[in-house]
Amino acid sequence: MNQNLKSFIPLAYNNELDKNLTSEAFNIIMSGEATDGQIAAFLTALQKNNVNKDHVLGALEVMQDKMIPVNVPKNAIDTCGTGGDGIGSLNVSTATAFVVAAAGIPIAKHGNKALTSKCGSADVLEGLNVKLLSDPNKLEKCINEVGICFMFAPYHHPAMKYVGKVRQEIGIRTIFNMLGPLLNPGNVNSQLVGVYSEEVQKIYCEVLEMLNKKNSIIVTGGHGMDEININGENKITVPGGEIKKWLASSIGIADQNEKELDGGDVVYNSLRINEIFSGTKDSFYEIVALNSAFALSLSKVKNISDDIISEKYKLAKDLLDSGAALKKLNELVEFTKSY
User: What's the confidence (pLDDT) of residue 3?
Assistant: First the structure.
């Protein structure tokens, strides 16, 4: 195998990478055998020419081989999205995870610190006093006892140390944004995945079908969000299915003040999660309830309907209003404190 990433940069630039060549290139990167400059050039060229399913599958093969796994319940799900939408919204998928966990569905949440935004899932969880655990055995115990665990990407993908600095320095979304939700250390079979474009949505539709993770929902949110938006036209699909347009008004949600979804730093985003978990009802509350409704419907993806989403939306609001989501957050804080 050619151990010089430089020879793969023209292939990425000229859009000549197939699955096997992508695997070779990623093996070089993830073995620490490429310079930062080469990695930056390769990732930028690959992104410029549009990442396709072969690139994702080729990279995924290498990344999974180097991953440190966690044993999680068979019915565990993840709400990790790609990020990279450039909007800088609040941590919707992280807040959603606690609502769904409060309903008794095990959550194997996967995520990272901010790379293309001000506050990533790991950042906001630390702001909420959740300690990031690295030991797979402790994480297994956590999800079994608490019903939710957070798997911090760098702890499970140590080879990512070779690209972390580059990703921060180039400051653009790359194939790694697309790979994140596919690299859950618990290898969950069911996911709610928010992506930043319809092109990425189509790739996920193909890849998740090939991985036989058919109890998943892939969404591109209205107004460019990588979450199901309370405003605008959402595009929703399942692995192997067609992309359908969907509006929150379909279940009676009126237009909301989208400014209330604007994120800030760790302190602000943590405060906003605590607020909606403690009784505040605003646009953030609504979008978390809506995304929770879809996550709570993952077992019904073959027959999903507005009636089912409406029913789960009401359940999500009950879990928020009753304090069950806040209780789940506090349980995770207490568990992680003990280590």
Answer: 61
